[in-house]
């Protein structure tokens, strides 16, 4: 029964992927991609990785889908140019064969992975009590591989600044992204008024429970960001201009808190990013809180894009 | 004493470079041309004093930089330093205020003297590269179209020579047992090297290019006339000797190699006669001198070749003696051309008399330094057919050089009263005296009168014939075979680069790059799968 | 391997530029500029201390982040190669900081502008990313470092906001992303096969089985794409030539070297020798093709900056000649080839940075970068032309330059190893390099037409920075070879 | 094991799209399909060993992939705004 379920799910994922590639128009392709992301999130649940499923649904399908849709709306035409640049049948055939062989090789490699599979599960679990958290993934992200997470948070800052720096010079200092008119009625307005209060609570909750149950800063931050985006698109919330100090500090607060706590480790524990066992959990929660804020801010800004409005 | 010798050896290279370093200030730059005369003096002192001292090793680790002065090196270093000094004085009068020229001059000087004292492969290569590449700046000084073309060709061939040598040196370094890079060890290991023939071929190509071995001589007749007078003097007198010292240093004369020696000897004679044959078709005095240099270096290489074939360990010193006369006399003549061009008919005798003496010295006229130089290579080129060939080449040289004197007389200044400034005359006088007298001090010998005289007379007869009927000779362009090579290159190179560009453009298109990526991934995987 | 004393230094080298970037971003353009100015000497000092530490210990310095030892935690390791690359990075970044002040300064009280803020932040960002890439001891951590590098490089390259830059950078981004994905696929397989991504732990256990082979080929190709090894160089010429000079210097000189060091770690640490032997000749063959094609195409370029960019395509090729010479050779030959490869990476970094800075100054002074129209450049920007020439000497491999020592070592080991054909490639590449360097210099040295006017005044300080880097690339060749024994530590 | 095959198929599909689709938007889309396959492969590895580490790696990976997508789309939009171009077909290097 479960095998059948997996089989159907797997075929569905591949099928949606093929459709997304093959369909001629951009809009249905993006819709197909969102469906693909949601199906993948289901697959992650089937694989027993609820944390990843949440992240995939929120970021992989949701946020990515939104920015793709924004792009589709703004990119029009170019059909002739695209047709001219389409590779000929011979190149496509070659690409098909080569990609097929790569996929096949990958499949062979996956199937010949050693049994029993090597695993760090036991080691991860053994040291969790020292950290005071129950969710092993949080343990990995915040402690064992904390440097990865720190660098990744920095990547988000990179991305925000990189996106901003694509703006024309004269727009610098202005509000990021398009400015939407206030929607006084209609479904969007209704949603934008009703959802955010609930969403903010849910987002903070998900971030909060991350220490012990599935959830965490990225998932929670994404939900918070989604609420912000909703309010922004409905014209209910104006984004602060890129010149705003507060906005910028919000973006860097997470990684800075991470580094600050990490450096304290030199004094109070044995080195960078090591936590004294007694206060490990509060420290981790502190970082998570700051990171949730920063992730949410960064995501909203990445969706909004470079400054477009007039200088504030 | 050893310390003094070492200091002098170091100063030989560092003095010109240090002088160059003063050019960072504007004032230093302005002073530079006037100081050229002093820059080679440490080298001259080293040649006189530092003779047989133990080598100076600078780094004690496995890349040893060392400076070493043996007898042939000291001889050539001394005369070359003298020429550089005289030409430096000449240059400051000839090109006053040419600071950039002075900079190139000092760089070239450091390399030119450096090759005579380098004791290991790396130092030698460095010095050789310095003298070869920096001389470009001397060639293009006049900034005319002709100078630029000559400079480009000179540079291309110089870099090609560097490449041959780089390869040869790498092969040498690989054949030396242990970590040493000393030239002496390399030469000792060469006869038993697994890649002996390849190494020697590359050495001959690299050094032959510099010394003007036919058909690698093409840059000489282009570069000499294009360069300013003092630059031509050091180019012909000192710089091409880098090739000669290379052959002297790197060929295993002790023991000898018959086949390669014979080949070099034959090519040397070929070069000697070829230079004469093409030189007599030329009309520009400087071009004639350049072809004469080709011919003279041919004689040196012939001596080196037959000495190598015979395994004659005295060859290096003998060849260095012959070459040292050329340093002095050819340097003097190039300086003399500048003096003559500024001198009017009224004073012609004052300049033509020493020129004529020098000219006949090249032919080996008894009592001149040239006769001693010729005598020095008796052991290699004195017997049998070789003796006849060398006598014939002396006759040819006499003819060619008389032709030069003739052309020079035709080029005297138009105002009869004109006279060259003393800044030009004095260096010329010093070099002329040096060419005629110094050999008597450096390598005195008893010269038999008649065997030395008849080639000169024969050459004079040839010259008379040339004056009467020479108009019928075909006129060869400067650089002769190069013209064909240039044409061939113009036909081959652009399509090749064009084709490469087109392939590259195709690969740069997105789908093909993507496909290349996939193909590579599969190729690597396949190679590993086969190996595993 | 245990953590060693001095590990905190590794963390500081990594965290200092990151912190500077975050605060600079938050506080705005002028703060970012001042932080970068302070960070430059600090960075050089830290790199020097680290280098001295590695030399003194004659062993790598290792830190376990958070005190968690691999396989659970992440290690940072500074071996000789890493220390040398960190030093190179610190010096070049410091030079670029000095160079860029003239272009990207914010006057006190002036409103923040886009380009200066982005430039100074991403200068710090790239520095952090480079340090992370050289120090990282875990393949996934290195992936994150590579992504940081890609984003930073991208942002710097389109700083001028021209359409051509956007197009070039999209090609770069998309191709680099394929490279990242390939690399990531490989790490997934390796984790599945060995349960760790720590380089040293993997080096003791790696087998020659199917997952390893597939992982190795995917990761290798991914990194080759990010390095733009021929024929995967589609993005490099336009991207590097289109960037502002300070950015080009960074991209061409340093950024491609990060992927290279990672590739070395993959092949000379992680993968078993049998696989390396199979792959090494292919890599060297691609390198040889890069040298010949890149140089030939560079010869034909009409634009100075594109010429310099194609020269990078060619010089990257040299880095790959060392693979078959190190793999399977006697210890002494392998050491020589290894030193030659590392030295090529370092001396090219200095020479190419100098060349791009010089080209930038020349192009600004002349108002264009058409090679045929460069007459008079030597008068407008004499020191820059000199810097270009000196850097060219190093690229050609003329003594006494770092490039010469590198190529000499490679040449020698090729002959020792009996693989003389690589020696031919090295030499042919040197000749072609001479050709394109000469093209530029001979045009720049010619006298301009009488009515010639420079387009803009040239900043003497910028010229001196370019010259300084060029001189370093030459002086590297004067160091005794024993100094380069450094790069053998921890090999 | 099924998902191992699914992941391989997704990688092949994504690669094919990236190589052959000319429109920039569709290339970005294909990159995200490809990314999904790669992350799924991590998931398979994690599931085989019951190991949380690869899951954590995937979370990091998804965030990085999102940042890359956002960056790429901004570039695509800016390119479109300035030149109207929707592909990166070669034309700018032969100036």
Question: Mind explaining what this structure looks like?
Answer:
- The complex is a heterotetramer of chains A (312), B (532), C (491) and D (95).
- By secondary structure, chain A is mainly alpha-helical.
- Helices cover 72% and strands 3% of the residues of chain A.
- Chain A has two domains: 1-73; 121-312, no CATH class.
- The model of chain A has no long low-confidence stretch (mean pLDDT 88).
- In chain B, helix 13 (258-279) runs parallel beside helix 19 (384-410) and helix 15 (315-341) runs antiparallel to helix 17 (369-376).
- The longest helix of chain B has 31 residues, at 145-175.
- With 491 residues, chain C is mostly helical.
- In chain C, strands 1-2 form a two-stranded antiparallel sheet.
- In chain C, helix 3 packs antiparallel against helix 10, helix 5 (139-157) runs antiparallel to helix 10 (245-270) and helix 7 (199-205) packs parallel to helix 10.
- By secondary structure, chain D is mainly alpha-helical.
- Chain D has a single domain, classed as Helix Hairpins, CATH 1.10.287.
- Chain D has helices at 2-20, 24-49, 52-83.
- In chain D, helix 1 (2-20) runs antiparallel to helix 2.
- Chains in contact: A-B, A-C, A-D, B-C, B-D, C-D.
- At the A-D interface, helix 1, helix 2, helix 3, helix 4 and helix 5 of A face helix 1, helix 2 and helix 3 of D.
């Amino acid at each position: 029964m479960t095998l059948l379920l997996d089989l159907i799910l797997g075929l569905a994922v591949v099928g949606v992927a093929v459709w997304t590639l093959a369909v001629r128009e951009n809009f249905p392709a993006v819709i197909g991609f969102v469906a693909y992301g949601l199906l993948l999130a289901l697959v992650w649940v089937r694989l027993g990785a609820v944390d990843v499923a949440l992240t995939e649904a929120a970021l992989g399908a949701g946020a990515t889908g939104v920015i793709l849709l924004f792009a589709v709306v703004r990119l029009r035409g170019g059909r002739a140019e695209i047709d001219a640049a389409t590779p000929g049948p011979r190149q496509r055939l070659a690409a098909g064969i080569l990609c097929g062989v790569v996929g096949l090789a990958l499949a062979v490699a996956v199937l010949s992975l050693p049994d029993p599979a090597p695993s760090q599960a036991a080691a991860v679990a053994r040291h969790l009590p020292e950290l005071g958290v129950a969710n092993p993934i949080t343990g990995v992200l915040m402690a064992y591989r904390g440097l990865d997470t720190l660098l990744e948070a920095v990547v988000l800052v990179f991305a925000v600044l990189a996106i901003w720096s694509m703006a024309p010079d004269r727009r610098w200092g202005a509000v990021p992204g398009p400015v939407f008119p206030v929607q006084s009625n209609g479904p969007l307005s209704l949603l934008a008024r009703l959802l955010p209060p609930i969403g903010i609570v849910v987002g903070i909750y998900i971030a909060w429970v991350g220490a012990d149950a599935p959830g965490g800063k990225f998932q929670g931050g994404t939900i918070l960001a989604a609420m912000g985006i909703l309010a922004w698109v409905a014209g209910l919330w104006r984004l602060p201009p890129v010149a705003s100090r507060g906005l910028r500090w919000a973006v860097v607060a997470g990684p800075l808190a991470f580094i600050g706590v990490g450096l304290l480790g030199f004094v109070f524990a044995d080195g960078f990013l090591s936590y004294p066992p007694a206060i490990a959990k509060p420290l981790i929660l502190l970082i998570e809180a700051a990171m949730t804020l920063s992730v949410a801010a960064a995501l909203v800004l990445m969706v909004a894009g470079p400054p477009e409005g007039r200088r504030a | 004493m050893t310390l003094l010798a070492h200091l002098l050896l170091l100063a030989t290279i560092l003095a010109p470079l240090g002088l160059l370093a003063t050019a960072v200030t504007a004032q230093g730059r302005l002073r530079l041309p006037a100081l050229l005369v002093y820059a080679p003096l440490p080298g001259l002192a080293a040649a006189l004093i530092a003779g047989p001292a133990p080598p100076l090793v600078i780094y004690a680790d496995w890349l040893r930089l060392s400076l070493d002065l043996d007898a042939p090196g000291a001889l050539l270093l001394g005369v070359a330093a003298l020429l550089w000094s005289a030409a430096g004085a000449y240059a400051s009068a000839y090109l006053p205020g040419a600071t950039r020229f002075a900079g190139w001059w000092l760089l070239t000087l450091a390399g030119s003297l450096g090759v005579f004292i380098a004791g290991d492969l790396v130092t030698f290569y460095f010095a050789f590269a310095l003298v070869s590449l920096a001389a470009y700046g001397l060639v293009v000084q006049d900034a005319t179209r002709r100078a630029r073309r000559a400079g480009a060709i000179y540079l291309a061939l110089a870099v090609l020579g560097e490449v041959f040598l780089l390869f040869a040196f790498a092969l040498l370094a690989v054949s030396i047992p242990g970590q040493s890079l000393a030239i002496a060890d390399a030469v000792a290991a060469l006869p038993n090297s697994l890649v002996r023939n390849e190494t020697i071929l590359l050495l001959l190509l690299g050094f032959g290019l510099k010394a003007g071995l036919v058909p690698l001589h093409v840059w000489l007749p282009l570069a000499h006339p294009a360069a300013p007078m003092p630059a031509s003097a050091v180019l012909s007198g000192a710089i091409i000797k880098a090739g000669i010292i290379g052959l002297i240093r790197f060929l295993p004369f002790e023991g000898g190699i018959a086949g390669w020696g014979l080949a070099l000897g034959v090519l040397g004679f070929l070069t000697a006669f070829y230079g004469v044959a093409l030189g007599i078709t030329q009309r520009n005095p400087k071009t004639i001198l350049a072809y004469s240099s080709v011919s003279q270096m041919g004689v040196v290489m012939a001596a080196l070749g037959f000495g190598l074939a015979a395994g004659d360990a005295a060859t290096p010193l003998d060849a260095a003696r012959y070459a040292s006369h050329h340093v002095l006399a050819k340097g003097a003549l190039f300086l003399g051309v500048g003096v003559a061009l500024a001198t009017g008919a009224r004073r012609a005798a004052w300049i033509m008399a020493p020129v004529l003496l020098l000219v006949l010295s090249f032919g080996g006229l008894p009592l001149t330094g040239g006769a001693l130089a010729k005598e020095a290579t008796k052991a290699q080129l004195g017997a049998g057919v070789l003796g006849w060939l060398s006598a014939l080449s002396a006759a040819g040289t006499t003819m060619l050089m008389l032709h030069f004197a003739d052309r020079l007389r035709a080029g005297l200044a138009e105002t009869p009263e004109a006279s060259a400034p003393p800044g030009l005359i004095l260096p010329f006088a010093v070099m002329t005296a040096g060419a005629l007298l110094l050999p008597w001090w450096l390598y005195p010998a008893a010269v038999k009168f008649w065997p030395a005289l008849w080639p000169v007379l024969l050459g004079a007869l040839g010259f008379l014939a040339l004056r009467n009927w020479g108009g019928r000779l075909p006129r060869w362009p400067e650089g002769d075979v190069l013209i064909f090579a240039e044409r061939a290159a113009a036909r081959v190179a652009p399509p090749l680069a064009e084709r490469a560009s087109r392939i590259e453009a195709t690969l740069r298109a997105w789908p093909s790059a993507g496909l290349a990526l996939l193909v590579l991934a599969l190729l690597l995987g396949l190679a590993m799968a086969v190996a595993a | 391997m245990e953590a060693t004393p001095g590990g905190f230094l590794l963390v500081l080298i990594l965290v200092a530029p990151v912190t500077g970037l975050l605060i600079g971003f938050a506080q705005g353009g002028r703060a970012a500029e001042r932080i970068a100015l302070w960070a430059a000497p600090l960075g050089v000092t830290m790199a020097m201390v680290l280098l001295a530490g590695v030399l003194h210990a004659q062993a790598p310095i290792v830190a376990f982040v958070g005190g968690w030892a691999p396989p659970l935690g992440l290690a940072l390791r500074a071996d000789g190669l890493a220390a040398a690359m960190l030093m190179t990075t610190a010096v070049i970044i410091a030079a670029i900081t000095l160079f860029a002040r003239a272009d990207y300064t914010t006057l006190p009280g002036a409103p923040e502008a886009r380009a200066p803020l982005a430039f100074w932040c991403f200068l710090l960002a790239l520095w952090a990313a480079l340090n992370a890439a050289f120090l990282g001891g875990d393949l996934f951590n290195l992936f994150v470092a590579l992504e940081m590098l890609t984003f930073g490089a991208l942002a710097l390259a389109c700083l001028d906001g021209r359409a051509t830059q956007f197009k070039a950078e999209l090609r770069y981004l998309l191709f680099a992303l394929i490279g990242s994905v390939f690399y990531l696929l490989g790490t997934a397989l390796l984790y599945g096969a060995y349960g760790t991504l720590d380089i040293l732990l993997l080096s003791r256990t790696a087998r020659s089985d199917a997952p390893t082979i597939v992982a190795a080929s995917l990761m290798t190709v991914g990194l080759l794409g990010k390095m733009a090894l021929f024929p995967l160089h589609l993005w490099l010429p336009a991207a590097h030539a289109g960037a502002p000079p300070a950015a080009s210097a960074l991209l061409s000189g340093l950024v491609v070297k990060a992927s290279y060091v990672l590739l070395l770690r993959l092949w000379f640490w992680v993968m078993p020798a049998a696989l390396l032997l199979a792959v090494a000749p292919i890599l060297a063959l691609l390198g040889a093709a890069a040298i010949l094609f890149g140089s030939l195409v560079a010869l034909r370029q009409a634009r100075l900056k594109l010429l310099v960019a194609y020269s990078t395509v060619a010089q990257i090729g040299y880095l790959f000649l060392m693979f078959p010479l190190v793999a399977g050779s006697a210890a002494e030959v392998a050491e020589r080839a290894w030193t030659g490869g590392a030295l090529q990476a370092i001396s090219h970094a200095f020479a190419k940075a100098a060349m791009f800075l010089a080209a930038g100054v020349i192009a600004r002074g002349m108002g264009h970068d058409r090679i045929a129209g460069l007459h008079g450049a030597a008068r407008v920007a004499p020191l820059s032309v000199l810097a270009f020439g000196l850097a060219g000497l190093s690229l050609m491999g003329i003594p006494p330059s770092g490039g010469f020592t590198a190529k000499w070592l490679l040449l020698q080991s090729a002959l020792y190893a009996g693989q003389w054909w690589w020696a031919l490639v090295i030499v042919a590449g040197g000749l072609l390099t001479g050709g394109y360097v000469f093209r530029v210099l001979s045009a720049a040295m010619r006298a301009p037409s009488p009515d010639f006017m420079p387009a803009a005044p040239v900043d003497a300080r910028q010229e001196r920075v370019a010259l300084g880097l060029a001189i370093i690339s030459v002086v590297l060749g004067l160091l005794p070879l024993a100094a380069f024994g450094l790069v053998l530590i921890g090999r | 094991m099924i998902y191992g095959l699914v992941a391989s198929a997704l990688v092949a599909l994504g690669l094919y799209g990236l190589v052959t689709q000319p429109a920039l938007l569709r290339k970005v889309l294909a990159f995200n399909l490809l990314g999904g396959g790669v992350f799924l492969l991590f998931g398979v590895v994690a599931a085989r060993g019951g190991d949380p580490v690869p899951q954590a790696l995937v979370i990091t990976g998804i965030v990085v992939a999102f940042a890359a997508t956002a960056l790429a789309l901004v570039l695509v939009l800016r390119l479109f705004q300035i030149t109207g171009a929707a592909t990166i077909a070669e034309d700018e290097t032969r100036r």
